[in-house]
Amino acid sequence: MSDGGRTVMLVDDHAVVREGYRAVLQKQRGLRVVAEAADGAQAYRVFKETRPDLVIMDLSLPGIGGIEAIRRIRQWHSQARILVFTMHQNAAFAVQAIRAGARGYVTKTSPPEVLVRAVFDVLDGRIALSPDIDHELALSHLAGQTVAADLLTAREFEVLRLLLAERTTEEIADLLHLSPKTVANLRSLIKAKLGVGSDIELVRLAMRQGLFDGDGGGGGGDRP
Fold it and tell me: N or C: which end of the chain has fewer CB within 10 A?
């Protein structure tokens, strides 16, 4: 912890949105925003440079998504504290974000005080979920339905996200620093796990389960 309070990094591809977070957080005693990033790859680089106490991470980002960025940061620093702040209210995204290493998940429809409370909860080592996503997770569990988030790893979920965004095998390989052969194998594994035999069936399943990213996955932040 620095003498100026606990430090925060903001990750969102909209500068005006980051400015809004900053205004809310810097009113809180003991918090200091020290870094920002506009995409997942930049978030990983800046995190290593600044080592903030907390990262507030959007999920829909240009290039690699927030879930992959979380996975990379946590792989580099296993104790990193990351709070997701996103438009995604689908429980599948919350499951995958937490599986990747996030310690909290708050939707952007939540009041500012919910975000602030979640920030301090995560900084203090607690799991934080906004009431709406907590409700969605409960409903998902009660329904007893097997969904993609229950079957796929964080890396497989990111490959699925990029496939749904119509990225080619070569593009996915470049973004995730994998070989095209590995991506092709992951593509086959994802279909096998989800019980589908074709790309069309995969898209249909994703549509039924609400897994399409807010911006099509190609570049841009969460949008309502």
Answer: C
Half-sphere exposure of 191 (CA within 13 A, CB side): 15
CATH 1.10.10.10 in the chain, residues?
A: 148-208
Per-residue pLDDT of the chain (224 residues; tens, 9 = 90+): 445 689 999 999 999 999 999 999 989 999 999 999 999 999 999 999 999 999 999 998 988 999 999 999 999 999 999 999 999 888 888 888 998 999 999 999 999 999 999 999 999 999 999 998 877 776 665 455 556 667 888 889 889 989 988 899 999 999 999 999 999 999 999 999 988 888 888 888 888 877 776 444 444 433 33
Which residues sit opposite 106 in a β-bridge?
85
Query: In whole angstroms, what separates CA 56 from the centre of its chain?
Result: 10
Contacts 24+ apart (CB under 8 A), 138-144: 139/91, 140/91, 140/92
Fold of 148-208: Arc Repressor Mutant, subunit A (1.10.10)
Which residues contact residue 137 at a Cβ distance below 8 angstroms, ignoring those fewer than 6 apart? 91, 94, 95, 129
**CATH superfamily placement of domain 6-142:** Response regulator (3.40.50.2300)
